[in-house]
From TrEMBL:
Pathway in which the depicted protein is active: Amino-acid biosynthesis; L-threonine biosynthesis; L-threonine from L-aspartate: step 3/5; Amino-acid biosynthesis; L-methionine biosynthesis via de novo pathway; L-homoserine from L-aspartate: step 3/3
Taxonomic superkingdom: Bacteria
Cofactor or coenzyme needed: a metal cation
Family to which this protein belongs: Belongs to the homoserine dehydrogenase family.
Function: Catalyzes the conversion of L-aspartate-beta-semialdehyde (L-Asa) to L-homoserine (L-Hse), the third step in the biosynthesis of threonine and methionine from aspartate.
EC code: 1.1.1.3
Originating organism: Kineococcus endophyticus
Any one Gene Ontology molecular-function term assigned to this protein's record: homoserine dehydrogenase activity
Enzyme class: oxidoreductase
Protein name: Homoserine dehydrogenase
Record keyword Ion transport present: no
Amino acid sequence: MEPVKVALLGCGVVGTEVARLLTTQADELAARVGAPLELVGIAVRRLGRDRGLGVDPSLFTTDAEELVTRADVVVEVIGGIEPARSLILRAVEHGASVVTANKALLAADGPALYEAAAKAGVDLYYEASVAGAIPLLRPLRESLVGDRVTRVLGIVNGTTNYVLDQMDTSGMGFSEAVEQAQALGYAEADPTADVEAFDAAAKAAILASLAFHTRVSLDDVHREGITEVSAADVRAAQLQGCVVKLLAICERGTDADGGEAVSVRVHPAMLPREHQLAGVRGAFNAVYVEAESAGQLMFYGPGAGGQPTASAVMGDVVAVARHKVVGGRGPGESAYAQLAVQPMADTVTRYHVRLDVADKPGVLAQVAGVFAAHGVSIEAVQQRHDDAGRAVLVVVTHSATDAALSATVDELEQLDIVDSVAGVLRVEGGDA
Ligand SMILES: NC(=O)C1=CN([C@@H]2O[C@H](COP(=O)(O)OP(=O)(O)OC[C@H]3O[C@@H](n4cnc5c(N)ncnc54)[C@H](O)[C@@H]3O)[C@@H](O)[C@H]2O)C=CC1
Ligand SMILES: N[C@@H](CC=O)C(=O)O
Ligand code: NA
């Protein structure tokens, strides 16, 4: 059989492992594809670094634009928007199928790339872009395509899960935990993308688009990162029998006219310790998918790191290479549903509000009055004292809209008896 020519763009954490698998597993991959996979080049930013891969040094090039024109399959693991976007478009125009792990690019400009691939009759696969090694996108695109997905809820960023887990279990500081995640190859080139939840928001956009057959871009996703999560928040969660996790939540909802819509958000939230997502440790990811006929499905595994991510990349490489061998392309995206995006203000959830208050008669009544005035029903109230002996009032609400809760917090901040609103966290995973 004619070999399938593979070009690798980028040789960092993920690219190095992809190159390693392409060379060390060559015989088995050839047997699975039905033709040898020939690595025709590796585009790097700088030549001359010994990457310890044992590949022919002449394969390294700084001319990615030229490289993509002589490949059947292009693997993009450079990351970022440009030049990744232009290189993918150029590859597609030259008839190459593309495998990418680049969620930032797909969440920003996915539809244009999917259309270009469809027009050129090639594949654009991106399993590695969400939840690393976990097979998640193909199940959504293929296995569940006959069902109606109603909700996708999960932990999709390994770096932040690692940081929050360290804060919960070892009391490690935020910065030290981020540095460790970087050293372990979990973090993005700029870890701001992780801790400010741009990465998780991009993944949520990709998940919502596939799950609901619509188009959701990064700008449609409500995003809150973990930089504001303090040791006191983690401690407060512990006192409630909860952990703090960064969650991505994609749900069916309604628009202002009562029509079908999607709600897509990423934010830290308290989860009861007995909830299955609460037990997801380190850089692992886990995603629940709820579908009308299938019920609840859970996908769990390593969500970041060079080797796990390379596993997902290679799964796609074999898939698109098989299509090259037999001719044609695999299933692509469908966005026929064209759903509106529900504003965050209308999203309904529960809240945990921590207030530093004066310890005197009438405080509780005044605070409760503010919640009531905004139609936010209180589920539980607890008063305790912090380590400095100041009064802390903890209010857990029943379900309320984000708009009502924001208005409540704004008014609480104005009360003389409230020294500060010390923390507001959403509470997920309960039935109340
Ligand atoms: N590290 C991880 O755990 C995961 C990463 N990803 C995604 O995989 C992609 C790659 O990530 P990493 O390998 O972690 O990043 P990295 O920063 O380790 O590697 C990227 C490599 O691309 C090179 N590069 C940059 N511009 C280039 C250019 N114009 N031509 C050739 N090479 C160029 C850089 O020098 C670097 O070596 C990103 O899109 C990332 O979001 C996805 C899932 C997990
Ligand atoms: N930086 C990301 C890598 C995988 O997508 C993460 O930490 O999850
Ligand atoms: Na995946």
